[in-house]
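User: I've been trying to design a sequence by hand for this structure and keep getting stuck. Would you show me what you'd pick, starting by listing the structure so we're on the same page?

Assistant: Good idea, let's start from the same input. This is the structure you sent:
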């Protein structure tokens, strides 16, 4: 019964969105804007550019709202459109982004990635943002700075005014909590999370 009610609510939301009702757009924007911004920032490494690209992407979504039947369609469009806009930005300044581990992986600069890969990546970032917000403040900050922003231990120490040991302990506790949360709530994303944490790197 609850699942049916949720389905009806989602259908009403999408119908209101297609009909041009502002509250529906606001709800979708609230749901996706933060993880989408992280997604774009990971490519552009520029906060202002990321915010501009996200704003433009939502504007495109609104203009084409009649084409979307489900939230999954909206999510796929947002992440693919935002990624393509990010790659256009990188091309316009004739440079490629270098990540801390080396050159940006080829799969990140390809526009021909399977849409399912985009969706899994989007869901992973969104789930990480949500779970990080539930952590104690320091643990959440350290996890976010490490895995979503790609900062080094030295940079985190400087920004938070803590020691490397404090960063290590906060990261360890946060990682354990995030793993537990994903195992219980996001089974379909758990393997992607394990791969991320085992590399000790950022969400790509």
């Amino acid at each position: 019964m609850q699942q049916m009610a949720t389905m009806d609510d989602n259908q009403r939301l999408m119908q209101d969105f297609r009909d041009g009702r502002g509250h529906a757009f606001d709800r979708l924007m609230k749901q996706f804007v933060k993880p989408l911004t992280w997604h774009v920032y990971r490519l552009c490494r520029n906060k202002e550019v990321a915010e501009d690209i996200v704003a433009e992407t939502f504007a495109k979504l609104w203009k084409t709202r009649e084409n979307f039947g489900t939230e999954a369609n909206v999510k796929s469009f947002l992440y693919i459109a935002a990624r393509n806009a990010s790659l256009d930005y990188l091309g316009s300044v004739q440079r490629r982004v270098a990540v801390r581990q080396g050159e940006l992986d080829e799969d990140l600069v390809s526009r021909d990635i399977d849409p399912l890969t985009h969706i899994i990546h989007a869901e992973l970032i969104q789930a990480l943002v949500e779970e990080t917000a539930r952590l104690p403040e320091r643990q959440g900050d350290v996890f976010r700075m490490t895995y979503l922003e790609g900062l080094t231990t030295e940079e985190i120490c400087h920004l938070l005014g803590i020691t490397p040991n404090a960063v290590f302990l906060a990261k360890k506790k946060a990682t354990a909590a995030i793993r537990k949360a994903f195992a219980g709530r996001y089974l379909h994303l758990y393997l992607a999370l394990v791969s991320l944490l085992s590399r000790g790197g950022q969400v790509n």
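That's my pick for every position. To get oriented when you compare it with your attempt: The chain has nine helices and two strands. Residues 22-44 form the longest helix (23 residues).
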